[in-house]
Design a protein that fits this description.
- It is a single chain.
- The chain has helices at about 1-50, 60-65, 115-120; strands at about 80-85, 90-95, 110.
- It is mostly helical.
- It has one domain (about 25-120): Glycoprotein, Type 4 Pilin (2-Layer Sandwich), CATH 3.30.700.
- The protein has a 3-stranded antiparallel sheet.
- It is elongated.
């Protein structure tokens, strides 16, 4: 009976630890998704004012200069978001994940506004 109780406590501790790790990972993805939404809204306002998306050379800093954002957010790992312009009317925001380098898996996986839009549409 005592052994069963100890095993139950250990199992509970393991389950709780795994759940906390998963919540932490999903929390970062949620934060990135919220940042993408805020940046996307600021980009839409920029298009309304200027008639086009910001030039990739000036990037997202234009949104702060125009007062559309108070400051540029950083991803949960402390890296700047990357701004890519695909054609004249499609902007993509990218987080390079925890390692700050292209590619990777887990926390190092790149997150794109296009990917998160597709996931939220499901």
């Amino acid at each position: 009976m005592v052994i069963f109780g100890i095993l139950s406590l250990l199992t509970g501790a393991v389950v709780l630890t795994v759940r906390m790790i998963m919540d932490h990972h999903h929390g970062k993805q949620r934060r990135v998704a919220l940042d993408f939404k805020a940046l996307d809204e600021a980009l839409r306002l920029h298009v309304e004012k200027a008639g086009r998306l910001p030039d990739p050379d000036t990037g997202l800093g234009t949104l702060v200069e125009q007062g559309l954002l108070a400051r540029l957010p950083q991803d949960p790992w402390g890296h700047d978001y990357r701004y890519l312009l695909l054609g004249e009317d499609e902007a993509v925001i990218v987080s390079l994940g925890a390692d700050g380098a292209p590619g990777g898996s887990g926390d190092d996986r790149d997150l794109s506004s296009r990917d998160l839009d597709a996931e939220s549409a499901r």
